[in-house]
UniProtKB/TrEMBL annotation:
The lineage of its organism: Bacteria, Bacillati, Actinomycetota, Actinomycetes, Micrococcales. Residues 16-128 form the Glyoxalase/fosfomycin resistance/dioxygenase domain. It comes from the Bacteria. This is VOC family protein. Pfam families: Glyoxalase. It comes from Arthrobacter pityocampae.
Length: 136
């Protein structure tokens, strides 16, 4: 039995799950698996809508297309943090990729306390906090 567990972020998209999860796979790499409503025998949405998708890799996310009448992604007061989770060059590249078509809230730059960090809301509405400590 594991001693720690990290929650897997599961997102309900407004009909854009295939595009969004593909975008995150392009940014972070990993293996993307998508299953359609039709594959899962669901009739509460378009047959080609995503009933379940998982990005398995260094950054793991899951999600689906919200069925009609179900809420879709909308966050307030939530940041997905990638502080110190990879080498600075990788974190810089992720920040830049997430910024494409999104909103750069706070550039990824050195801060007065010595670390570098920044915040971006990507084009699918997820807000990210990315940063790292100074290199020795």
């Amino acid at each position: 039995m594991p001693t720690t567990a990290a929650p897997l972020v599961y997102l309900s998209f407004p009909g854009t799950a295939r595009e969004a999860l593909g975008f995150y796979a392009d940014v972070f790499g990993g293996e993307l698996t998508l299953h359609s409503y039709e594959e899962f025998g669901r009739t509460d949405g378009p047959p080609d809508a995503v009933a379940h998708g998982v990005l398995d890799g260094v950054v793991a996310l899951a999600g689906s297309d919200a069925a009609p009448g179900e809420p879709a992604v909308r966050f307030q007061g939530l940041l997905l943090s990638l502080l110190g989770t990879a080498a600075p060059a990788v974190l810089d590249a992720w920040f830049d990729a997430l910024s494409v078509g999104g909103t750069n809230i706070d550039p990824l730059t050195p801060k007065p306390w010595g670390a570098s960090d920044g915040q971006v809301t990507d084009r699918h509405g997820l807000r990210w906090l990315i940063g790292y400590e100074p290199q020795a």
